Amino acid sequence: MTPLEGALWLIRHGFPVFPCDHPGTERCSGIGRGHDPATCTDRGKHPCVPFTRAHTLDNDQMQSSIGGRLRNVGVAVGGCAGPDGARLLVVDSDRPGAIEDAAEAFGHRHTPTMRVTTAKGHHDYYWAPASTRLGNGLGALRGKFDGDVRSGNGYVIGPGSVHATGVVYELADPEQPPAVVPAWLLAALLAAPAHPAPAAAPTARKTPGRLAPLVRFVLESQSGDRNNRLYWAACRAFEQDGNPAPNVAGALLDAAAHVGLTEAEARQTITSAYRSRATR
To answer: Are residues 185 and 69 in the same domain?
Structure first.
């Protein structure tokens, strides 16, 4: 399945789509606040349009947007409407079996549903009640699930798209529609987390006031733009102070960890930012 074929399949099944960056292009085609296509290292995931208002269910529009050019396809989660106005919820497992293990930890079995395999794990699509307002928080799943969730104004990369590693996102079973979100999962997502969110750590540091917005900028990242936002924030920090104090670098590392980056990834990104500023 190609990205265009994936987009057309999604449209036929009622999922609004939009074009995203493809890792095969020379530089990132994505847009977004704080995103620099020239330095993007998280390829294949950035929207090429303001997806919250530019998604579509029109075949001709997607043919025009994707046909004949290298583009991935994104699914506008908040634009999807299921039976009786149900809202789409996508559970993004960072490893195979992550959601199955989480279900077991809560004393339940995983409910099979529409699944798209990814480079690291899989996306499971569910319908949540229309009256439910879910964000991207894990609730009681925090610490018990390796991955993220997307709902509301979030988005995910769709089937047929190509990951930066060359892995193609694939439908596990094209005949399997999204299931109704199981009660245990919905309750877990709506519950308060069992432990304080690590976002408190960056604000606890004595970060200079002029740099605090950069920490917030990293904390507001979604999975597709975490590295780029950290890189941009680190560059701005080095521009302001030349060589920021350790507590500033530590606050950026804490913020990166909160949004799901490993310490090694975050340190590498901050080091790249330092080298970039030093050569200018």
So the answer is: yes
pTM: 0.71
Look-up of token digits 């699509």: 125
Contact 161, 66 (CB under 8 A): no
Q: Tens digit of pLDDT for each residue in 76-96?
A: 999 999 999 999 999 999 999
Residue 162 to residue 43: CA distance in whole angstroms: 10
Name 25's bridge partners. none
Residue 19, domain extent: 3-190
Pairwise CA distance, residues 248 & 98, whole Å: 33
Residues 37 and 124 both lie in one domain: yes
Same domain, 184 and 254: no
What pLDDT digit, counting tens, does each position of 232-245 carry? 888 887 776 554 44
If DSSP states are collapsed to H, E and C, what string results for the chain? CCHHHHHHHHHHCCCCEEEECCCCCCCCCCCCCCCCHHHCCCCCCCECCCHHHHCECCHHHHHHHHCCCCCEEEEEHHHCECHHHCEEEEEEECCCCHHHHHHHHCCCCCCCCEEEECCCCEEEEEEECCCCCCCCCCHHHCCCCCEEEECCCCEEECCCCECCCCCECEECCCCCCCEECCHHHHHHHHCCCCCCCCCHHHHHCCCCHHHHHHHHHHHCCCCCCHHHHHHHHHHHHHHHHCCCCHHHHHHHHHHHHHCCCCHHHHHHHHHHHHHHHHCC
